[in-house]
Amino acid sequence: MDEPLDEIPHPLLAKTRQQFADSATPHERIAAIDDEVLFKVKIQRWRGAVWIDEPNAEVPVWLVAAGWREDGATTDFYAALAADAKTARARYNATHHRPITAGTYTAHLLPDDTDRARYRAESAARFERTLAAAVRDLARTSLLDGREHTATVGGAVLGIQVRANHGHETYVAVRIIGSVPPAMAIVVLDLVPGCDLDGWFPEYSLPERPLDPAEQAWSNLMDPGAAAKLLDEGS
């Protein structure tokens, strides 16, 4: 599945995010699972098992299993989860010298390095989408009034000013306030529509003032056609 996990419109995922947003909120443990601490999450007929990682982990909360509620049936999610965990324990103990003393085994449900790598990759993609939207919005807004507009993205302040003159040249200035890796600056400049990436030049002042010590700034010319298209997107 290639769809970003945070964009899957599933009610159980939404409920998990809501229910586990506050670490101080009490949760109901799945009593039948004793090798790991798993918690219940419920919405409509959906049931899930949630595992909580260390507080400083990249992803502190994981939905590790899900299914349907079927009261009294062996196919009920929590009954099936417990039965599968007991079977997994027996299988593990049959193939390992050091047996599990707990009644269940659910380690195979927990996130592994592949899951964490996917999260990091999706985080980078999410950030670039957020950054791209911010760049286009700032450029479009500045095209309307010629003033600089700013937004905070990823802990840094991004400012864009676009000015069109009567000679049909459209001047663009981009500034970043804050400590950011060089790669982020290149990504920002590449996202400005209608500008050649090789056409950016460092600036030591903005049209209306000098730069502060913590600021970085660049300027370029925007293609008038791209500027017109950008304005049409907002109409």
* N-to-C SSE string, H for helix and E for strand: HEEEHHEEEHEEEEH
Please state the overall shape, judged from the principal axes of the Cα atoms: elongated
Q: In what range is the share of β-strand residues?
A: 15-25%
Structural class: alpha+beta
Strand order of the largest sheet: 4-5-6-10-7
Uncertain segments are none
Annotation, overall tally of beta strands:
10
What about the largest sheet?
5 strands, antiparallel
Descriptive overview:
The structure is a single chain. The chain is an alpha+beta fold. It folds into two domains: 5-111, no CATH class; 123-233, no CATH class. The protein is 34% helix and 24% strand. The protein contains five helices and ten strands. The protein has a five-stranded antiparallel beta sheet. It has a three-stranded antiparallel beta sheet with strand order 1-2-3. The longest helix has 33 residues, at 113-145. The relative contact order is 0.09. The mean pLDDT is 88.
Relevant terms:
235 residues, alpha+beta, 5-stranded antiparallel sheet, 5 helices, 24% strand
How would you summarize the topology of this molecule?
Layout: H1 11-19, E1 38-43, E2 46-52, E3 61-68, H2 77-95, H3 113-145, E4 149-153, E5 156-164, E6 170-177, H4 182-191, E7 201-202, E8 205-206, E9 209-210, E10 215-222, H5 224-233
Antiparallel strand pairs: 1-2, 2-3, 4-5, 5-6, 6-10, 7-10, 8-9
